[in-house]
Amino acid sequence: MPEGHTLARIARDQTKMLCGQVVRVSSPQGRFPDAALIDGQVLQTVESYGKHLFYWWHNGLVGHVHLGLFGKYRVSVGQQVPEVQGQVRMRMSTERGTIDLAGPTDCSIGTADDRDAIIARLGPDPLRRGVKPELFVTRIQKSAQPIGALLLDQKMLAGVGNVYRAEALFVNGIHPSRPGRSCSTDELRALWLTISSMLKQGVKDNRIITIDRKEFPITNRRAQRGDNTYVYHRDICLRCGTAVQIVTLGGRACYFCPTCQPY
Fold first, then answer.
1. Which CATH number fits domain 134-256: 3.40.50.970, 1.10.8.50, 3.40.640.10, 3.40.50.2000?
2. 140-172: per-residue pLDDT in tens?
3. Who is most buried in 49, 72, 95, 155, counting CB within 10 A?
4. Which residue in 51, 89, 139, 165 is the catalytic one?
């Protein structure tokens, strides 16, 4: 499932490509009949929040997309509309290009109130301007669940997935099995800042690179993910050389270094 930086980057790129224009919206697959409600409307903005995308249309309706595990976009630049490939749930076309959406967990049309209800169920998104860590800190410190599980709970923090979870905990020396309520306010504030910084860098790079480039210069821009992380998908800790261990938390494997992240 894409992490928050991917959705923020998608929102930014689609805003440039689609917004301020009349958009032709259809459902080649036929499973998005509400496409007719926004077909021919002007798209005002594309908003990301955590792992969710919201499309604000001129007629007041708001589209919602959650990619889930299998959702993906295919982008074609230019006026020529491409042939449909595979099962396309939603197609959006302008003179600048065509964007096809396939396999999302949710693709629906609602109102601003519906959008607000979705966000109300989520924790703070570190990529949003002006967001402070207080709510995140308070919620974590009330829970006896392992911090490694809590970071994947979107009610605690919106946008973090398996890679950023492992890497942010490593950078801050926090064992993923520690109960949330055992973490100090200073530790959680530092963790928030690390996650925020990593997500913002991910938006800029359009990929996940969590290592400090001053400490470990990146020489291969096409390297696999495990080559650009400290512990995630690694056998040996990049910093100390200890064998990386794995613990299952939140239903996902969490990588950690027992030396750099003592319990």
1. 1.10.8.50
2. 999 999 999 999 999 999 999 999 999 999 999
3. 49
4. 51
Please pick, among 12, 24, 178, 252, the residue that the annotation labels catalytic.
252
Active site residue 51: yes
Catalytic residue at 83?
no
Q: CA-to-CA distance for 2 and 244, rounded, in angstroms? A: 24
Tell me which architecture the domain covering 4-120 has in CATH: Alpha-Beta Barrel (3.20)
pTM: 0.93
Q: Is 2 part of the annotated catalytic residue set?
A: yes
| Chain centroid to CA 89 | 21
Q: Other C-beta atoms within 10 Å of 92: how many?
A: 23
Tell me, yes or no, if 3 is annotated catalytic: yes
Backbone CA torsion sign across 214, 217, 218, 219: positive
